Amino acid sequence: MISSKLQGQISKLAIDLLLEEPFFGQLLVAMVKRKLTNHLPIALDLVSSTGPDLLLNEAIWLNGSYTRDQKVTMIKHELLHLIFAHPVRALRFSNADLFDIAADLCVQSFLNIKQDLVPDLPPYRSAAFYYELLSNLERNERERLFSQTSESRQRHTYWRSVQQLDTQKQQSFHHRCQSLIRRIYVHYPPSDGMLSNMSLRQQLELALIKKEFPEWIDWKHLLRRFLSRSRATFIQQTFKRPSKRYKTVPGITVRNNQKILVCLDTSGSIPRSALALFFHEIQKIWKNGAEVYILETDYKIRQRYIYRGHQPSAVKGRGSTSYNKAIEWANKHYHPDAMIYFTDGFAGAPIIRPLYPILWLISPGGIDQHTGVWNQLPGTKIKMTG
After folding, report:
1. pLDDT value for 317
2. Domain shared by 12 and 159, yes or no
3. What pLDDT sits at residue 193?
4. Are residues 176 and 58 in the same domain?
5. What is the model's pLDDT at position 232?
6. Domain final residue pick, 191, 209, 227
7. Positions in the chain short of pLDDT 70
8. Strands lying side by side in the sheet with 259-265
9. Are both 275 and 367 inside the same structural domain?
């Protein structure tokens, strides 16, 4: 832990931020502050048992090297890395050093800090956007960037500890950070004038309030989580298991009582490989004990049937796509516990709103997140990755 003297200084900065920019202030208050023993002034640690933690070098923070405004900027810089999940998103990029620079350019843009590394960069873009621009630079130009940013990039060395964890632990840390940010955002959203335009607020709404999922999160895990939320159970007598209380038969067992309506897009844009992937997941849902009712549909419902564990030899459809007929039929006739719509997303947004929880599973060759009709589809959307 940090000394009481440094804690007092950080508390004063936190109070200032709470009054001026409550979103950042609340996030700073919520984080554990720990002592940093190397030459860096500040760093971010996500993998500690109390994480995310803010690491501070007492010698540097107490010797007057930085002004009050510079300290506030350094704190907000690290907090924005946390908000944008840069330590975890770095896994998606082959050149870690180049991503470090891109992440700093992203943060500096949102803090309105003028940078001279790469002139005329468009502001308020993602680290991925800047990474792509930097990747297209000449090799000697990239080497110049590496040389000029070597000291600032050292603050990101703690990110590597996240990247060395297995996928499940990375997701766990990411969800813990996102939960913290979401909890603060709901009560203290960034004010309109906190940053020039509302780019940060818009990104937070997209990532937190709408609860969209980063591409690296396992879509199969999210599918299982969606199904578990809609599962109901009932008690049934059985002669296969004696009663634990009376040691006689019949005993009781707990059975699933879940009705899942699967809407299967059979339009002409769905390739055979996507249909095979769809039925592979349908088989898993059925094996878990759910009643699975399938609608094969393109611009209208072509056929409907209860799934009994066998994939049909052929599907009907192969026309254009409309989502309205399937949703309307579910609302009026089937009344499921949940709906799953397998599609590629190449269609207009549905006019009819579903009355039941709906999950859109977008095929690997379908639309990407936040393109096409993605943001207009009601419910939860997940991009399948094969």
Report:
1. 92
2. yes
3. 47
4. yes
5. 59
6. 209
7. 51, 191-218, 229-241, 243-247, 249, 251-256, 386
8. 301-306, 291-297, 259-265, 338-343, 358-362, 380-383
9. yes
What is the C-alpha separation between 140 and 211, in angstroms, rounded? 41
Where is the domain boundary, 153, 183, 209? 209
Kindly list the distances between the CA atom of residue 233 and the CA atoms of 253, 255, 337, in Å, as whole numbers in the listed order. Answer: 10, 5, 12
Classify residue 183: in a domain, yes or no. Answer: yes
Same-domain pairing of 191 and 293? no
pLDDT for position 279: 95
Find the farthest-apart pair of alpha carbons in the chain and give their distance in angstroms, rounded: 81
Same domain, residue pair 128 and 243: no
pLDDT number for residue 324? 96
pTM given for the model? 0.56
We report the CATH number of the domain holding residue 266 as 3.40.50
Name the residue range of residue 293's domain: 219-383
